[in-house]
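Researcher: Good morning. I'm working through a list of sequences from a screen, and I'd like to move beyond sequence-only analysis. For each chain I'm collecting a predicted structure so we can compare shapes side by side. This is the next one on the list. No need for commentary yet; just the structure.
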Amino acid sequence: MSSTSPSRLFSEVPFETDGKHTGFIRLFNSVHESAFGFIPIPIVVVRNGEGPTALLVSGNHGDEYEGQVALCNLARGLSPDRISGRVIITPMANFPAGKAGLRTSPIDGGNLNRAFPGDPSGSVTEQIAYFYETVLVPMSDYICDLHSGGSSLMYVPSTLTVRPSDPAKLGPLLGMLKAFGAPYGYVSAGGNGTGGESSLWGAAERCGKLAINTELGGAGSVHAGGLRIGCRGINNLLVHAGILPQEDFIPVDRPTRLLELKGPDYYVYATEDGIFEPLVEPGDEVISGQAAGRIHSPETPWLEPTISYFQREGIVMCKRIPGRTKRGDCLFHLASELPSGA
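Model: Good morning. Structure tokens for this chain:
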């Protein structure tokens, strides 16, 4: 793959014309049922003169719904005369996964948020990643990728970013977390399966752009509180970017509590197969050595359950949702206070 190769995807909507434009990014996909067909990835571009560009993304994982609903609301309600600059909205980034209600694509098994920088001649998921990497991200100044826990996790509503390679960018990224106004905002060290360089955040890092993510709920459903926080947060992020006027700012109940997520000791994993019984909930504060959950074995009910423990103190950011679990599944992860000046 050459980083200078053009993307094969085609956008029906213009990016440089004022007004509100709706349509699809066409990913041509020749299959048995449709020889010359395309996968229609929806896109909305709202533009009014010169100014910053915000790229708002959801459906990166197809079973994460709060962001998809929030961006549908925005796509219907945002008019060009309200903004200065440009807003690009893609509510269903991994369209095949979104249609199927799955984290990964049913076509190629691809996890879009682990597929960057992509490949213009690769699989469907790799082609989508390459279009974002080479077309959408470079034209954007502020990027917000709306996630939640999907089918396997439930999060306390929060925002996050990855610690950038340029320390000077951490301040502006923290400013975006605070502007979004979720109850918690944390800085991840990357790793532990969270994507990092292979995520949309990684594409932003390579292009020198500012990007944050959200975790707005999960459990394979729409979390009403997370949706409200997401809709308000998108609005306030656009105000922060100077795209919406200051008078459109929506007050928040309390400032965002800034946290960090670092090494493997922040995670708790299942050590056995069985039924997971959580002993804490998202938002709880825990200490090192505290029991996190029990795993029961109904197949052998006379055996004592296996107990998992927290390895450090922190705030519980998420918990596993399905009752059945297997060895290696993530049960919880924590975050801890971000040191001042970090």
